[in-house]
Automatic annotation (TrEMBL), chain A:
<dbReference type="GO" id="GO:0008199">
    <property type="term" value="F:ferric iron binding"/>
</dbReference>
<dbReference type="InterPro" id="IPR000627">
    <property type="entry name" value="Intradiol_dOase_C"/>
</dbReference>
<dbReference type="Pfam" id="PF00775">
    <property type="entry name" value="Dioxygenase_C"/>
</dbReference>
<protein>
    <submittedName>
        <fullName>Protocatechuate 3,4-dioxygenase, alpha subunit</fullName>
    </submittedName>
</protein>
<keyword id="KW-0223">Dioxygenase</keyword>
<dbReference type="InterPro" id="IPR050770">
    <property type="entry name" value="Intradiol_RC_Dioxygenase"/>
</dbReference>
<dbReference type="GO" id="GO:0018578">
    <property type="term" value="F:protocatechuate 3,4-dioxygenase activity"/>
</dbReference>
<comment type="similarity">
    <text>Belongs to the intradiol ring-cleavage dioxygenase family.</text>
</comment>
<feature type="domain" description="Intradiol ring-cleavage dioxygenases">
    <location>
        <begin position="52"/>
        <end position="80"/>
    </location>
</feature>
Automatic annotation (TrEMBL), chain B:
<protein>
    <submittedName>
        <fullName>Protocatechuate 3,4-dioxygenase, beta subunit</fullName>
    </submittedName>
</protein>
<dbReference type="InterPro" id="IPR024756">
    <property type="entry name" value="PCDO_beta_N"/>
</dbReference>
<dbReference type="InterPro" id="IPR050770">
    <property type="entry name" value="Intradiol_RC_Dioxygenase"/>
</dbReference>
<feature type="domain" description="Protocatechuate 3,4-dioxygenase beta subunit N-terminal">
    <location>
        <begin position="11"/>
        <end position="44"/>
    </location>
</feature>
<dbReference type="GO" id="GO:0019619">
    <property type="term" value="P:3,4-dihydroxybenzoate catabolic process"/>
</dbReference>
<dbReference type="InterPro" id="IPR012785">
    <property type="entry name" value="Protocat_dOase_b"/>
</dbReference>
<dbReference type="Pfam" id="PF00775">
    <property type="entry name" value="Dioxygenase_C"/>
</dbReference>
<dbReference type="GO" id="GO:0008199">
    <property type="term" value="F:ferric iron binding"/>
</dbReference>
<dbReference type="GO" id="GO:0018578">
    <property type="term" value="F:protocatechuate 3,4-dioxygenase activity"/>
</dbReference>
């Protein structure tokens, strides 16, 4: 049996912005001045508008100022903007995919999105509402995957098939964004006692 | 009733083939590498799906870095090349509609970026960014200039081999990948601490583009071939019961 090996990963390096968010990097007018993934809401999207913000923090406690994050999520009804979505039509005014750099001075990232609906676990049980997060930066050799869950979804979180199978339950809070008005705060710790749970997806 | 196969979950990733998180020879990884085990679970729809990009979003010059930042009538300085190949999955099936985004230094080894202070000059006709989407055969091609090697702060005398960074989207977010492409014959490949984060020499070799004289544009640009491989995918059998049956 012959299978090809996946191309090995290499770090995104310090200049990932040039290729992925060129307008942010100062390449004025590249791709019409529209960085891909900057706006997830393209019209009158259904559901609750929320902001998610936070920092990516290294093992010394310093926020990364050169990271890039991508998120992927279902719409407010729990449907994906994907040709493989067979359960219904996803909201045409919501892309489900966002990409943001961390700020070059403060290190803060921010996504304007809608709160996702629930999507099923393979056995049909529903998962708690969540967002997939992917983090790349200089010094990260292979993009890191994690999930955002929501602090105001306590009962769904406690029944979630993925969260409930995690052995070290004291680490689960690293996956839960804290609600403050319409803003959720979600810091990602690469190392240390609060190291975020990263997934092998 | 109809029966068939539909795309399922993705093959398990081989973490011994990829660089590990902690690679002390590449110093920045020390404080940025998670230390606890990744928690594994089979893909749900969240991981098995992902954004899809249409060819309609591309501008005419998006895949031509020699022209897409150049002043009218000008083009970027440096050895002109075509970098081309296929995006395949682990079963050698083409991955159509895969978005590739690339970024690179100019021919002198300098990036158009606030944080790059290397003394090699900027090229006024080179931005260093391009993108394309594979066709139905999984084929892609970009036109650019061969980037220069450059020094970087790690050990006191570390140089990056000439390279182009690539970001790839497949059909599901589980296939998301960023990597770098090197050029056949570059003695810096073997010396580079970032290249050497990859433990297996055979894995490194898959990131080295090969001179491809069959695909040159004569009297214009040499060609290099680079094939990318994204994770393979299981097939799931399904049955559709038709209405009224
Ligand atoms: Fe680079």
């Amino acid at each position: 049996m012959r299978y090809l090996k996946e191309s090995p990963s290499q770090t995104a390096g310090p200049y990932v912005h040039i290729g992925c968010v060129p307008s942010f990097a100062g390449l004025e007018g590249m791709y019409g001045g529209n960085d891909l993934g900057k706006s997830m809401i393209t019209g009158d999207a259904r559901g609750e508008r929320i902001t998610i913000e936070g920092h990516v923090i290294d093992g010394t406690g310093t926020p990364l100022k050169d990271a890039m994050l991508e998120i992927w999520q279902a719409d407010a009804a729990g449907l994906f903007h994907s040709p493989e979505e067979t359960r219904g039509d996803a909201d045409p005014a919501f892309t489900g995919w966002g990409r943001q750099p961390t700020d070059a001075v403060t290190g803060r990232y921010r996504f304007e999105t809608v709160k996702p609906g629930a999507v099923p676990w393979p056995d049909g049980r529903m998962q708690a509402p969540h967002i997939l997060v992917w983090i790349v930066a200089r010094g990260i050799n292979l993009g890191l995957s994690t999930r955002i869950y929501f602090s105001d979804e306590e009962s769904a979180n406690s029944a979630d098939p993925l969260l409930s199978r995690i052995e070290h339950q004291n680490r689960v809070p690293t996956l839960i964004a804290r609600r403050d008005g319409a803003t959720y705060h979600f810091d990602i710790h690469l190392q240390g006692p609060d190291e975020t749970i990263f997934f092998d997806i | 009733m109809t029966k068939g196969f539909k795309p399922g979950t993705f093959f398990q990733r081989d973490f011994d083939w990829h660089p590990p998180p902690l690679t002390p020879g590449y110093k920045t990884s020390i404080a940025r590498s998670p230390q606890r085990a990744r928690i594994a679970f089979d893909n749900t729809m969240t991981e098995a799906t992902g954004p899809v990009f249409g060819h309609g979003m591309l501008g005419d010059l998006d895949n031509d870095l020699t022209l897409n930042y150049a002043r009218p009538g000008q083009s970027a300085q440096g050895p002109r090349i075509i970098l081309h190949g296929h995006v395949l999955d682990q079963e050698a099936r083409p991955v159509p509609n895969a978005l590739l985004e690339c970024w690179q230094a100019n021919a002198g080894g300098r990036y158009r970026h606030k944080k790059d202070g290397y003394l090699a000059p900027l090229d006024p006709d080179f931005g260093g960014c391009g993108r394309t989407i594979t066709d139905e055969r999984g084929y892609y091609a970009i036109r650019t200039i061969q980037p220069g090697p450059y020094p970087w702060p790690n050990a006191v005398n570390d140089w990056r081999p000439a390279h182009i960074h690539f970001s790839l989207f497949g059909q599901g977010f589980a296939q998301r990948l960023i990597t770098q492409v090197y050029f056949e014959g570059d003695p810096h490949i073997a010396l580079c601490p970032i290249v050497n984060t990859i433990p297996d020499k055979a894995a490194i070799d898959t990131l080295v583009a090969k001179l491809d004289m069959n695909h040159t544009a004569p009297m214009d640009a040499r060609a290099y071939r680079m094939d990318f491989v994204l994770r393979g995918r299981r097939q799931t059998m399904f049955e559709n019961k038709m209405e009224g049956m």
